[in-house]
Every structure is written in C-alpha cells, then in structure tokens.
Amino acid sequence: MDLSLLIRESEFAWRIEAHGNMRVPAVIYASKSLIEAMDHKVYEQACNVAALPGIVNASYAMPDAHWGYGFPIGGVAAFDPKLGGVVSAGGVGFDISCGVRTLRTGLERHQVEATKAELADRLYRAVPAGVGSVGAIHLTMPEMDQMLKGGAQWAVDKGWGWVEDLERIEEHGCMQGAKPEHISAKAKKRQQDEMGTLGSGNHYLEVQHVSELYDEETAAIYGLHVGDVVLSIHCGSRGLGHQIGTEFLKRMAVAAGEYGIDLPDRELACAPIESSVGEDYLGAMRGAINCALSNRQIITHLSRQAFSAVLPQAELRLLYDVSHNTCKVEEHVVNGKAQELFVHRKGATRAFGPGHPSIPQPLREVGQPVLIGGSMGTHSFVLAGTKGSEHKAFSSACHGAGRAMSRRAASKRWRGRSLIDDLGDQGIVIRSPSFRGVAEEAPGAYKDVTEVVDAADEADLARKVAKLEPMICIKG
Amino acid sequence: MQESNSWEHYDHGADIGVRGIGDTKASAFEQAALALTAVVTDLNDVEPATQIEVDCEGADDELVFVDWLNTLIYEMATRKMLFSRFEVRLRENGLSGHLWGESVDVVRHHPAVEVKGATLTTLSVTQNENRQWVAQTVVDV
C-alpha cells in the first residue's frame, strides 16, 4: 500500500480521511512494514465500507487485513440502525462464525510426547476432516431447527459436552434471535451430515504446548503455564453457513438497489438493519452462529473421547471459544453516549477489555481471551482484550496470519508428502486426507503471525499472553 | 469441444479465481465449471459416470454465472460428488445444465479443498478482443 495515501496517527495507526462518498474515515492498525506489504485493495475496500449508510466512527482494518469480498478480511465496521445502518452478508463472510476454541488438557508436554502418534491417529479417526467427509451424526429437520436455535447449549443437552463448557463460550453457547424459518431447505440439507466435521482449507484441530508467556499474571488466570498442553479447534458453520452466505449475498445484491443504497462494489451487498431482508439475514446468520458453536462443541466431545482412550488422565476444560466472522449487537460508547450498534467483524476477533460483563467471571478482571491461530506447523497466540481497544476498534483485534502466497503457487512449490516429513522432523505430527491440501496450506504460504500479533499488541487492540507451539495438526 | 475453449485459475489472496473461455457464452460457463472442479482435484481423475440436471437463474448474465457455480458447489457438497463434464443451455435470465461425475473417493481424488461459495469479486461475463466469451469470478475456499 502506498504510504503517501495515509496519515500516520501513531506508530501503529494509519488514517484515511473521508473523501469522495465516504461518510467516515478509515483507520488501519499495523506496523509500517505490514502496511507496506498490504494489498492496495485493502485501502479501496476499507474506503468502500466507510461509504455504507449508518456507519459509526470509522471503517477499521486489523494488522492482518487482506483483500476480501467487499469488506477487507480483517475488517471491522459498526452500524447504527437509527441512522439507516445496514447489515451485510459480505461483511460477515461465507464461513459464518468461523472461530477458534482452545481447551486446556491438564497434561504436560512430556506426557503427550510419548503417545503423540497414537493420539494423532485417534483424533484423526474421531473428527472427520476434508472434502466429502461425513459426521456420525445425521440431523432430522426438526433436530436441525433445535440445533439452530440452541447452539452449543443444544449440543450439551444432547450429551456432547459439559454444562460448564457453556460459560466459556461467547453468548453462553447460544446466540439469541436465531430464526431457522429464514434458513433455506438447501442450507439445512447441506448441513445434515456435517455436524462435528472440521471442513478443509485453513481449518484445523491442533494439539499445542505453551512455549512462552508474555503476561504471567493473566496466563495464570487463564490457567496457562509453560509446558502445558492445550487443544485448539479452528472451524465454522460448515455447509449451512456457506449456503446462507451465498443466498443472502445474491438477495442483498438485488435488495440494496431497491432500498436506494448506492454500492461502490456489488460485493458490498447489504440491506438496512430495519428491513425485511436485513431482519431475515440476521435471523438466519444467528442460526449459523449456533451451528458453528454446536459444531465446535461436538468436535470438543469427540476430541475428549480420543484423548481419554490414549491419555485417560486428560481433562479437557474450555479456556474460551471466540468467533471471527460475525455481526453482533453490542453496546458501545459513541460521543459519550452508550449505543446499541451492529458490529461486523470479518476476519477479526472480538476483544472485550477487563471488566466487560460478557466475559466469564473468573477471567473478567484481566480481559477476554483472544485466540489467534497460526498456519499449519507454526505457532498460535493467546491474547487478552484491553480497555484501549474499545475506543480503537469497538473492542476488536486480528484473527490470524493471512496468506502470503496463493494456493496455486503453494501447490507448485511444495509437495504434501515431503512437507509432512519435514514437519515430522520438527516434532509436529500431521494427519490429513490430502497431500495437495497440505501443500496448499504449507507454513511458508502464510505470513508470519508473530508480526501481526506484535502489531495488535503494540496498537493496544489486545495484549500478548502466551505463545502456543504445535505438536499434532489434523488438517481437512 | 473446440480447441479454442479453455479454462484457467487466477490468484486472489487467500482464494482462487476460476475463468472459462469459449466461443459461446455457454461454453465459457462450461469451461469455468471445469476450472471449479480443478480447484478441488485433478480433472483427469474424475469419471463422468453419473449424470444429473440442474437449473439456474439470475437477474443478468453475471448473476446467472454465479448461480451456476453455486449450484455446482451445492451439488458437490450434498451429493458428495465431483464433476468433470458439463453441458449448458442458456435462456433469458437462466440456464439448464447437465453435469457428469462420480462420488468423491478420497484415496483416488485427494481432494485439496472444499469450495464454500462463488463470490462476486472480479465477476464478469464479457467478450474479449478475439470475440471469445470469458466468464470468471473468485471462489471462496
């Protein structure tokens, strides 16, 4: 990105003044080197989002921002329904409520090392991954509607997990306001056999160990110590969310014109929050959030079974579950007044600071856990929400590394088999149904997540707590 | 198939663009469908054994094209199939299509990635300087 287009507000904040049809400025949080490497499309897309009706304060981009669909990936934007604010299917993305869940295992690294291959095999067998994989659970349509309304609470009621899991999930595991009647029969059919499946692409199930602490006090409250083993799950709402995203993108592309919204890019397809299309989408999207939460809950249950077969002393307790593709109604202070806003986070993680009432009580004083996944074979991070993030980007932070190289280039450059061998030499066990899939997800095809996380920390979007190194990675 | 019909992929950050080029609009749509399957697996490994029919609609050529790709994605996902042969018959604001393929075989197909949906990014259905039709868009994987 051309630095001359930006006003440097501080070392890690770059501002684009409102110009043309922009209603508010755009702000990008990143280091100078990340900005220099950032695609110019992020600039264009952040400006386009700033032109949408009812946007509040600014259109924000996180340090891992890259070229997305209408909204940049790593984009945050809040809309006020009273000002004609909109909701956008592209502002949430196809993989609705994609997110990361991390569980402590109660195990130390040396306990897992001895049985790593066996544990990897068990997890790989327990959690279906990749194209065409089918879960053991088949939902009837009445069950589907119950799942869409109940989320992880529904899954726990069915026996897939513990009641205490729920308090460590956003919205206590159940997104209110889901309207299964606004989700098409096609979307539901696409999901019928996909509960408890991981999907493909950058989704994974990873056994990791805590390798470094940056904030020992917060880490202790999160229950993390150097050498501890954790399990992280990265996936979303599977076929249901993809189909809802697809259908509403098309519907909103038509509706926007009917509501007199002038779109600078058709992909920004949106509708007023207070409109029938907007309300239908919100009801459907909330159902997809519940689908993602119940999916990660079922995978948790399957993972617990796999662990207990190999390491019976393991006790997998939820640290936190946070989504990074959502639109949520939240209260934020704007111009000294508390207001209810519809906050879109597309490839951005909610990061509530210390004291926020929605943070589980035992963690509240230090801030919400912010879970940042790295690419296969590289480290991940646990951060904590800060007070400052509220005023910077409606309490939001980055979500991951972002690709540095296309899938095509990666599959030409690496071979899956030799990558698996190389990672094995580094002590990382990979299990995947597709060598080509592994090649396309090669660690070298991603940017360094460390630089992104450092920028989020320096910009005060969230603060670093712990670093996680992979031991086992199950890839779709 | 005429020799001038072809397909290709193009880069888009985390995702991938599919482009079909053909002497007719319908053949450009068919070629783009081949490009879509090639995102997932090697086309040569997919037997065109079973035929299914689909119907797509849209307010204009571009939205019909997006609906076509999304219909293929839906059929792949729900039937757990891959397709390697396509026939498209266009009509005003829609098309009817025939797909030939087979069930996913993980060992034989090594499916690399699941396609989530066709986006509207870089979407276009146009004629190039050689008067060939080009249909393209980015798919989210």
Describe this structure in words.
The complex is a heterodimer of chains A (476) and B (141). Chain A is of the alpha+beta class and 476 residues long. Chain A has helices spanning 32-37, 40-49, 109-113, 116-126, 141-157, 185-191, 216-222, 238-258, 276-310, 389-393, 407-413, 416-425, 435-440, 449-458; strands at residues 7-10, 13-16, 26-29, 59-66, 73-79, 86-88, 99-108, 204-213, 228-235, 270-272, 317-323, 325-334, 337-346, 349-350, 369-372, 380-385, 396-397, 429-431, 462-475. In chain A, the strands form four sheets. In chain A, strands 7, 8, 9, 11, 15, 16, 18 and 19 form an eight-stranded mixed β-sheet that branches. Chain A has a seven-stranded mixed β-sheet with strand order 1-2-3-4-5-13-12, with helices on both faces. Chain A is globular, with a radius of gyration of 21 Å. The model of chain A has no long low-confidence stretch (mean pLDDT 95). Chain B has one domain (6-140): Archease domain (Archease, Possible Chaperone, Chain: A, domain 1, 3-Layer(bab) Sandwich). The longest helix of chain B has 19 residues, at 61-79. Chain B is of the alpha+beta class. In chain B, the strands form two sheets. In chain B, strands 1, 2, 6, 7 and 8 form a five-stranded antiparallel β-sheet that branches. Chain B has a three-stranded antiparallel β-sheet with strand order 3-5-4. Chain B has helices spanning 25-40, 61-79, 106-109; strands spanning 6-12, 15-22, 50-57, 81-91, 94-103, 117-118, 124-127, 133-140. Helix content of chain B is 28%, strand content 41%. At the A-B interface, helix 6, helix 8, helix 11 and helix 13 of A face strand 1, helix 2 and strand 6 of B.
Briefly summarize what is shown.
The complex is a heterodimer of chains A (476) and B (141). Chain A contains 14 helices and 19 strands.
Jot down its keywords.
heterodimer, A: 476 residues, tRNA-splicing ligase RtcB, seven-stranded mixed beta sheet, B: 141 residues, alpha+beta, Archease, Possible Chaperone, Chain: A, domain 1, five-stranded antiparallel beta sheet, 3 helices, 8 strands
